[in-house]
Amino acid sequence: MLTFDTPQGTLTVTPERLAIAGWAGRDQAGVQHHIEELAELGVKPPSSVPLFYRASSLLLTQAVDVEMLGGEGSGEVEVCLVSDAEGRPWVTIASDHTDRKLEAVGVAESKQLCAKPIATHAWPLEEVRDHWDSLELRSRIEEQGEVVVYQQGTLAELLDVDTLIAKLPAALKQGETLKPNTLLLCGTVPAIGGIRPSPRFAMTLADPVLNRQIDHQYQIVELEVAQ
Q1: What is the pLDDT at residue 70?
Q2: In the structure, what pLDDT confidence band is assigned to residue 75 with cuts at 50, 70 and 90?
Q3: Domain carrying residue 53
């Protein structure tokens, strides 16, 4: 069960389905370039773009101390659409924390291995739909004891929410929206200085039009990999 503070009070959602949109950039030429870069590192190209990776809804967590196996994982801030029990859509942020070592073996498998931290605040989608592109994603990591900016960009860089929902497989949508109790991570912006792990990850969704933001952070409790 997930609990969110919203402008309309407390929202409680019991997730039943979780999907993660991959290769969801609006600039498809840039997406193809990134696919080619990753292919050189041994990461298998997607069968289509965007591609919706399914993951267990049990991976979602609002904890601030999050256990992860080994130290090869890294976070990615993403807007997350949340459909409540009545099918009403909400907006928050989550981290698509992914094991980068396993990613070369299989992208879907690497995503399934890691918990998906999610914020404790949400906004109704209807409040931000008309200025969706101006919403800004930011993340910060810790390196050598210093906090550095890791990601920064607007949702104008990603496919808009209506396009994403239209492309969803039937198992995830109901009419023109998500099925009730479904969560969708909507893609991410590039990492500044390259993808790399960090013991702490902080993320923000800023709304410059309504002058507000959603923040969440977590730290990794690294579990030893037995050999």
Answers
A1: 81
A2: very high
A3: 2-223
Q: Return the DSSP state at 49.
A: S
**Which helix (H) or strand (E) covers residue 205, if one does?**
strand 200-207
State the sign of the Cα–Cα–Cα–Cα dihedral 130, 189, 178, 58. Answer: negative
pTM over 0.70: yes
DSSP label of 127: G
In whole angstroms, give the CA distance from residue 184 to residue 82.
7
Q: How many other C-beta atoms lie within 10 A of the C-beta of residue 208?
A: 12
129: left (phi over 0), alpha (psi -120 to 50) or beta: alpha
Cα distances from 179 to residues 17, 22, 125, 146, in angstroms, run: 9, 19, 15, 41
Q: What is the CA radius of gyration of the chain?
A: 17
> Are the C-beta atoms of residues 2 and 168 closer than 8 Å to each other?
no
CB 115 within 8 A of CB 95: no
Whether residue 43 is predicted with pLDDT greater than 80 in this model: the reply is no
Q: What is the pLDDT of residues 162-197, one digit of tens each?
A: 999 999 999 999 988 999 999 999 999 989 998 889
So what's the pLDDT on residue 107? Answer: 79
Look at the chain and report how many structural domains it folds into. 1
Does residue 50 have a cis bond before it (omega within 30 degrees)? yes
Task: Name the residue with tokens 């008309």.
Answer: 130
What are the C-alpha distances in Å from 71 to residues 4, 63, 134, 193? 29, 19, 34, 19
- CATH number, domain of 27, equals 3.90.850.10
For the chain, the distance separating the N- and C-terminal CA atoms, rounded to the nearest angstrom, is: 34
